[in-house]
Every structure is written in C-alpha cells, then in structure tokens.
Design brief:
By secondary structure, the protein is an all-alpha fold. It is about 80% helix and about 0% strand.
Length: about 325
C-alpha cells in the first residue's frame, strides 16, 4: 500500500481473504504477486507448490483463475475438473458425517445418494435411496433418485415400479394412462383411468380418457359402428386431439351422411378452433337435416354474431325462441 500498488494490494487481500490462515503462506503470496506482474508461468508454478501441500478446493479455484488469466484454457479445464472432484469428495465426507450423527437423516442420505450417482457409484447410490425410502415410504425425492439410478443401471421395470409408487393423484394416473394408451396397452390405460376416477370422482379428464379408450375398443371390434365413430370424434374434440377429431368426423359423415348430430358436433369442433365460416357451414347443414332444433339455431346465431352477420344472428335467435316456445306449450 505504501508503494501505491493498490491493484496488487487489492488482489492479494481479495484472494487471501478467502483462504484459511494456514494457507496464506509465501507460495500463495508469491503467486499472486507474480500474476500481477504478468509473470504467469512463475505464478502458476508457485501456486502448484501450494496445491501440493494444501490440496483444498479454494486453492484450485485460485489456480484456475491464474491459468485463465494466462489463457491456458486446456489446463484450466483440468484444474476445474480436479476442483470439482475434490469438492464432491468433501461433500461426501460431510454427508457421511451427518449420517453418522443421525442415521435417520433423510436429507443427508438423499444428498449422499446423488453424490454417489455423480461419481458413477450406482449400486451404493441405490442403497442410500432405498434406506431413505425405508425411513419414509412417502419420500418423493428418494423415489425420484432411485428411479434415476435404476434407469442408468438398465433396470427399467424397477424404475417403472418406483414411478408408480407415488403416482396417486388423479392427474398423474390419467397421464400414466395416456402413456400406456399411446404404447398400445389399452387394458393398462383403462386400469389407470379407473384408478384416477376412484381417487377423484370429479376429475372429468379421467372420464373422457376412459370413454375414448372404450370407443377405441368398440371401433377395433366394429369399425363401422356409427355411434362409436361419432362419440370417438366428440371425445377427441374434448381432449383437444384436433387432427384425430377431424378424421373421425370425416369417417362419421361417410358412414351416416344424413345425421344432423354429426354435422352439429363438427360445427362445434370448428367453432372451438375459431374457424367460424366452417362452423357456420356445418351447423347450417345440420339445420337443413333437422330444421326444428332450437339449440342449433341458437348456436348458429352465436357463430353469425362472431362473423359480424348481426341481422342474420337476430333472425336465428328469434327462430330459436319461437321453436322453444312451441315446445314449452306442448
């Protein structure tokens, strides 16, 4: 400081502040001074001496910084790898110490499991996650960790069992059913949907997926079943499977070209897609087949108002009200 070498002083103080008192030996100071004086090779040589006697992560961090300053990028990577490896090693010692103090410490066991997994010691990691599960059978983190280890060991079935162990909510069971369905396992999918419904009887998506599964099975047995095709299309619409719904409606129209219900539900699909011209077209076709339906007039009025056809929309609303009044008076 007296020589007004403020930057040098700042660097030495900065780095020295992060080191334990025993590490602030002459090689470290010399390395920092040599680095400041642009003698990078000498600085690295000095610090290598320090790391030989005090192989701590903080020393390797400083060495990495000096090598970065010297633009020795390949050596930097190697140094950082050493630092990371030593850091993992010291973490492992901490976790083991925590487990020694409290063998039922779940957090320590899970952290140790992930630590061992990082080092590639999968069997030992699996053992730690398993002990954590024995301590707390509902610990999701332990199941997630063991699932990851099982997959890396090629134990797919065991991983799937661990995933299932905590799959208890209706949304998760429904998602599992969808996966089984996509894989072609319809019986398994149906089991998942039924379990989801038993967990939450108000979870509508599980019912829709179960219905979709049933209709798919019907169509496998009877591909020309008109009711199954139309309901399959409606279910696809509700599940937002747009392309499949379009294909189903095409098939339904080929099977029953004079069904007002098919055209009406197809109009519903395009209304949801905000393709109002097509929605109006198919709803009008439905009305030409079944002209005394108040709901269809009301629906077309809604569509026409979105298209800006206000006069036609008002006429449809009036027609819907007239039909409904006639129906109520009967």
């Amino acid at each position: 400081m007296e020589l007004k070498k403020y930057e040098l002083a700042k660097i030495i103080v900065f780095h020295g502040g992060f080191l334990p008192e025993s590490f602030t030996s002459q090689p470290v100071q010399q390395a920092l001074i040599q680095s400041f004086c642009q003698n990078h090779n000498k600085a690295i040589e000095c610090l290598c001496e320090a790391t030989a006697t005090h192989p701590e992560p903080s020393m390797f961090v400083i060495l990495g910084k000096l090598q970065m300053k010297a633009k020795k990028t390949k050596v930097i990577k190697f140094t950082l790898y050493i630092c990371q490896a030593r850091h993992i090693f010291f973490l492992q010692k901490d976790f083991l110490r925590a487990i020694h103090l409290n063998p039922k410490c779940i957090k320590a066991r899970i952290c140790l499991g992930y630590n061992l997994e990082t080092l590639g010691k999968l069997q030992r990691a699996w053992r730690q996650f398993t002990v954590a599960i024995c301590i707390d059978p509902k610990c999701r983190a332990a199941y997630d960790g063991r699932t990851s280890v099982c997959l890396q060991m090629g134990e797919t079935f065991a991983a799937f069992q661990d995933t299932n162990a905590l799959t208890t909510s209706a949304p998760l069971l429904t998602n599992q059913g969808v996966i089984n369905e996509l894989m072609g396992y319809l019986p398994c999918a149906m089991k998942d949907y039924q379990q989801a419904i038993s967990v939450d009887t108000n979870y509508a998506l599980a019912y829709f997926n179960a219905a979709y599964c049933y209709y798919s099975k019907v169509l496998q047995l009877d591909p020309r079943n008109e009711s199954a095709v139309m309901n399959h299309a409606i279910t696809n619409t509700l599940l937002n499977n747009i392309e499949e719904a379009k294909e189903d409606f095409e098939k339904a129209i080929r099977l029953c070209p004079f069904s007002a219900a098919v055209y009406f539900n197809r109009a519903n699909l395009y209304n949801g897609l905000k393709q109002y011209e097509l929605a109006e077209k198919y709803n009008s076709t439905a009305l030409s087949i079944q002209p005394n339906d108040a709901l269809m007039y009301k629906f077309r009025a809604d569509i026409r108002s979105k298209l800006g056809f206000n006069k036609e929309a008002v006429e449809d609303y009036k027609q819907a009200m007239s039909i409904q009044e006639q129906f109520d008076s009967m």
